[in-house]
Structure formats: C-alpha cells, structure tokens
C-alpha cells in the first residue's frame, strides 16, 4: 500500500539529501515560460473558475506534475484537474512513478525537473530549501492567501522554511484512530471510550473475558518499527502537549527527556502488557514480527471469533481489511478517536500528508498551485474518488463529497476547531533518526524488551550534531 512505500521512499530520500544529491544546483530556469497573464480566460463566467480567471488564457500551455501516486490511485487526481483545464485552457501532464523519491533528484540534476512535485515529507522540503536555496520556488501570494483562508495555521507551518512559505498542503491522513468491530462492541455492551482512563478500564473489562483487548504489528520490511513511533508520538501529544511535542521534534528537548520517558512508559502500559496484547499472534514481543498490514485483522476475522477488540492505526488502514469487509459505525469495522489523556491538552490529532512543491514560476504553474490550494480542488477531488481514500484538512471541503465513512470521520476530526494537529514527528526529524534509529530502537524496545531509558538514550545518541 502507498503508506508503506512512502515510508520506505522517505528513508531513501533522506539518504539522498544527506549525500547532497537532491535537486543539486537546480533553481528556476530562464525558460520557465510566461509569468504574466494575457488574453481572456476561458473560465470567465463559469462556476468554480472565479479564482483562476486572473491568469488569462493559458490554452496550449502545460504543467508537468511528478508524484509517487500511480495507477489506479492516479485516475481520481487526473479527473480532479478537469475543472482547472476548463477554467484556464492549460493541461496537466501527470506522471506517477514508484521510483519517485530516487528519480526526482536525478531528473532535476539532469535539467529535466517537473514544474510541480507532490512531496510527502516536510523534513525533505526543509532539506531541499536549506541545502539548495534556489531549487524550490516560493509560493505565490494567492497560494499563501488560500492556505491562510482554508487551512489551520499548523498546516502552513509545515510548508514553511526559515519564515518563507513554499508548499501548500495536498492531502492528509489521520493517525489518531483506534479500529474496532461495532458488532462485537454492541454484542458485549462495550461503549466507545472518550477518555484514556475509560479506554484502560475497557481494556481491563475485555481482558477479563479472555479476549485480548489489543492487537498490533510493527513489521514493515526495511521500515519496521514506524507504527511504534506513531504510538509514542500520539501519546506524547496527549501527555506533554503540543509545545513539548514541537520542542522534542526539533530537538530543543533531548529525545530522552523525562516527558518522553513518561510517554513511552504509558505506551508500554498497553503494548508491553501481556494481559492486553497481542490478540491472535502471541505475547507482546510478537508485535515486532507481525506485519503492520496484518496487525488489526484479528478484530474481524473472515472466519471464527475475533481474537482482539482494538487496534490503533491510521485512517489509511482501511485499505488493509479483506475484500468484502464493510466499514461503518454499524458495519464490520470502524474506528474511534484515540482519547485524550490530559484534558488540558485539548484534542490532539497526529497525522501526515503531502505538499505541493513548485520548481517553476511559470504562470501556468502558479495557476495550478492556486487551484490546488484553494477551495475548489478539494471538492473536485472528493467527487472524483467515489471509492474513498481521500482526506484533506481544507476547511472548504464539503463532507458530502467524501466517500467512505472513515474518510468522513477523518475530515470531521481535522475540521474540529478544538483539534490540535501535529505532523508525524519522525517525518520531521533528520533522516538518520526519523527513518533510522527511531524505527530500529522502538523495534528493540518491543521485540527484545529493551528498557525505555536505554531505548531513548540510544536514539538521543544518534541525533546528528548539525
């Protein structure tokens, strides 16, 4: 699935950045095309084109787009650009590649960069801008204004480097979910917990029945361990709050700060508790050898009785359920929001997403950036994705245009004015930590029962000096 491939790709990208290979020596060229509007826009008087008529007539112009999103997921994106072409006359030349993370720097280095790329990692964007300051184009004012209007302040921060805004958000995912079987909960009279204490009390109640309350898996090939990092990040947001989380991610606080020790011990109260885990697989150490794609399946097995009741995993886990599994509040499986621990910390939401990054300042590129960042594209993309799998934090997204129940739940969480959103911490850390020691040491913490302090000390020792 794409989430796994993206994780692996980010590790590759981090290596390329550290090697100084990404986008080397490539800034805006002198032949990017016109940068000023001319002619009468084809979108004059057409609904949905209001923000694009300022770019004039772009008929005959093309915007090249490079991304890791390939068939069959690419078609909804292609369909979502139809309104853009109708409004401007320009065409989007879409190219998806499974080798996106390795081929992007090669193409730029050889003088064949795309006009726009969808970058899945804020940390990579930061490295590109800081190491090669002319490679990425600053976002036009219209794009900046759109993000101010349609997104929370946190989202703009992730596309900003050294106080300069470059990349508006594209898609989002919510990681603060607990999957469960509504039927099993209803049959047993179990209520959805709304606080952490209620969730632990429910876990004890379930364990008393002989069923394991939790199942989990952190296996992911070369990226084994990343689901455990999500657990720590989600809990730290709930125990330490957003400020502590931000300081930890940026290394203003050491990785082994007492606040992080407390958070990881809290995670251990679930993941290293044999009374709670690992339903369907073994003792808690089996979490390290269980593929994350399989981790939640014992909640709703195709045959037989469920072997666990809850599984913490992101919205994108919806794609892992066996064919025929129905997702919904009264269906085979659904998910509830991972409850807060400290009410003073509000309603923390851990998530991820992709960002629209330009390597050209041509007028057609500016127009596409404006379209994607505004209020029209998200609804076009939602309508073009009838089978689900699209989530955005854009406030203008009409939830009626979001197809699947879990996607709707994700949008509701992201649009909650009380939500405190934070991006996946490992995606923001230096590659040798976020896609290296963090994954490795969390795997040892579970698979080898390595103690909390040693685990965090080892990661702290791996943090690069500069």
From TrEMBL:
Keywords for the protein's UniProt record, in alphabetical order: Signal, Transport
Signal peptide bounds: 1-24
InterPro entries on file: Bact_solute-bd_prot1, SBP
Coiled-coil annotated spans: none
Superkingdom of the source species: Bacteria
Family per similarity comment: Belongs to the bacterial solute-binding protein 1 family.
Cross-referenced PANTHER family: ARABINOSE-BINDING PROTEIN-RELATED, OSMOPROTECTIVE COMPOUNDS-BINDING PROTEIN GGTB
Name the UniProt record assigns to this protein: ABC transporter substrate-binding protein
